[in-house]
Write a structure and sequence with these properties.
This protein is an all-alpha fold. The protein contains nine helices and no strands.
Length: 249
Amino acid sequence: MLINDVIRFLILRKQDMQNDTSNTRMKVILFILIGLIVGGIITYPIAHMMGKDSVSSTSQSSVSTATDTKSAGVRVTLNNLLREHVSTNLTVTYNIIDKASDAKMQASLDAQTANAVAIADAVGSIYGDEAKKAITTPFVDHLTQSNNYAKAVAAGDTVSEAAALTALQTNLRQVADVFNSVIPSLSSDTLYTALNDHETLMNQVATAYQAGDFMKAYELENQALTQISGGADALATGIVASKPDMFKQ
């Protein structure tokens, strides 16, 4: 994720760099980041080719402890899916604001939908088909309302923006209630607050990007990724607690 995040940063800074040739400090920062990307790309295959003997026994033990459990698997899966949710949603947002081509727009919408399906499948794999169906409808609706908000921001339509926000609040409550129905250790209010915090960050990204403040948009996107990871960890803890027999070692 680090390389992808840095690449996105470089893209977002491209326009600023073109418009402000005197920003020497930013040029230096970008040069350093490019070096980190190249270093990371080169270092990984070298370490991989050297084999596991090149990894210290301490590191091997730490990795094994962190990932070789069923509960850790749930945590990792949810982190991956929910971080992807942030990335695919914001890609759609950026494309809407940028007035991307039909092909590019459709590709991002397809990726957004595929991620929603994967999240519903993950829920269903633990709680069954009824839970999968219960989360699919409000979650897909969430994508629709989120995209409607981005369209309103792009158009500068404050009336539609307010309507989309109202619809999102109702939708987030529905999503919170569904998760609470299968993870009773997490209250609906707690889930709603976390979801609302997430949506606030996502909406702030859209506003910053529309205003041309790409650095702020990037920083807010990183905050959204960090926040959603915390949410994924909390969900994973609740899931394991709700299904102790399933996650026995």
